[in-house]
Design brief:
48% of the residues lie in helices and 14% in strands. By secondary structure, the chain is of the alpha/beta class. The strands form four sheets. The chain has a six-stranded mixed beta sheet. It has a five-stranded mixed beta sheet with strand order 4-3-5-14-6, sandwiched between helices. Strands 1-2 form a two-stranded antiparallel sheet. Strand 1 and strand 2 form a beta hairpin. Helix 1 crosses helix 3 and helix 6 packs across helix 15.
Length: 387
Amino acid sequence: MLRLLAFVKNRCLHLPHQSVSVIIGKCYIIRRSLIFTEGVVMKFPMALVFASCLLAAPAPAETIPAVPLAAGPVLCRISTENGPAHFQAKALRRFSELIAVRSNGTILVEFHESGKLYRDADAVGAIARGELEIAAPGIWQLDKLVPDTAVLMLPSMFAKPREIIRAVVDGPVGAALSSDLEESMRAVVLGPWLDLGYGHIFGTAVRIRSIAEIRGRSIRVAGGKGNEERIKALGGLPVSIPLLDLPAYLERRLVDGVLTTYETVESAALDSHGVRSVLEDNQYYPFYVPVAGKAFWARLDEGQRQAIRGAWAEVVVDAREEAVRAQEAAKRSLVERGLTVYRPTAEESSKTHAALLAREDEIAERLNVSADLLAQLRRELGKAERR
């Protein structure tokens, strides 16, 4: 068996990743059929099945054939950790329904919300490994794979108007990030990114009434090294906590503040777990990035690919505006239930932005954001502001 495993390892080292993925898939199919032949349980070590498939695989010097197109409906699972009340989950549900219609039933779509299939942080890896077909993770989940994604969390983006931020993301900066994400995630970006909306600092039992009061406070972030660095620069103590775990932390009063949006607080009912106030400081403006795994994409014909891209293009236009409406509606609802809103003065915001900008280069260096991309971001911001 040791010799067999050594053979498997040596053979895999010389095969492209895509070929190994296809071979692994065949192994599971073969092993499943062997185990349950005529109702008799037969145990076959996976390494033995894998080795037999490797023997049948092309030699390293040969050209690896493309993955054959599926003969029947192709399974497409779409995952989000947001619950059914969140506008992003609603948009992805519409997206899944449109795919089914536009593909004429040749794509079998399953939509999974509330993190029932994958949490978003795990969905990123699942897409890369070919274990999930489509997801729309937030940018705060992506800088661990593509450090340059943190450029959108840097001080240059602090409290910028929505139209300017969208212009940057829809322009060369967003295109460069999409290209890097496709390579690192082994994925295909399906089209324009979807807004989430401004993130603010929400207070718990501790009311954070000004930017200065962030200092010394434990502030929950959903993820993103860029978010952590910005909170640190403001004197806060960032703590990374996934959304699905956050209610328990709030109830135990383990954090003083939460970096999130009105819609997230509303849809997850975080006010019922201890959120009492908000410092509406427009900390940053996050987006969701729609991606399909390349392993899944390779199983589709061109018509099916166009069906998916077309469905997203149809959904995202309305969904972007729905994001804005959802944030406004969530704010109204939360205020009616007792949420107190604090706003920094124009002078405080201006001074904070200037102080953060003075440290931007050192923050970007720690985050491994490329100097070229940061320079491009600044140029694109300047262009957008002059329009």
